[in-house]
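User: Some background: our group keeps a shared notebook of sequences we're curious about, and every so often someone picks one and asks for a predicted structure to add to the entry. Today it's my turn. The entry only has the sequence so far, pasted here. Could you supply the structure so I can complete it?
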Amino acid sequence: MGTTICITGMHRSGTSLSASWLERCGLPIHAGRLITPAEGNPKGHFEDLDMARLQAQSLQRRGLGSVGWGLRGDRFLDFDPGERARAADLVAERDRVFPAWGWKDPRSVLFLEQWKALVPHLKVLAIWRPAADVVDSLLRRSRRTTNPDMRARAWPAVELWKAYNRLVVAYKLRHPSSTLLLSLDDILTHDEHVMTLIDGRFDAGLHHVPIASLYQQGLLGRAGTSRRLALLRVLTAHRGCTRLEDELCALSDRPVPAPGRQP
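Assistant: Of course. Here's the predicted structure to add to the notebook entry:
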């Protein structure tokens, strides 16, 4: 039995950057078929085409759209029998080739319990980012895109952020020993310690490559002083995101001890 890592989190939370970084550090994240770069991710989505297609089709079957914008509520979704068989085949194909491998897809948040049932040894790297930053990124991409599936509006985007991250919290609480919950900021500012944490917890045989060699600030739109972002912080707080952000922060695994804490 090897190591299998699912890299996931709400859309626009840094999952593509994290997947590209882990691939550079030695983790295979596809079996030869990778989704190509697009408007929202000019450096690439770093998504296994077969895994992404399986989950997109499952969402479309439910009428939720290929990226899940139509999601309502915060309950984990199930694969139907055909999807479950296809998922098992994809896992088996990759297990035969790679002693350690992973895949990245934000939509995997919605199916995490299904994946855990199929792969009992599954490790999950869940990444979160504050609601205002995510909504800001979604709105900026929405203005540029010609793909109607990628268009977003502020209120539904806030609710989607809450739904995804409530599922992240629920999964982390159910499977604490096999789940690493990390903030995007921690990955960007403590990448060497994060790699030590990932490799120590997941035993994937990775080697550290500085994330700065991959990261471009403009692509994440970290314009922390912008007027729009300030307004979105007020909006997301009003919509109840602050409490969930506090919960995510409290549950997050720390790559370095917090001030005042003993190592």
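Suggested note for the entry: Residues 154-174 form the longest helix (21 residues). The longest strand covers residues 3-8.
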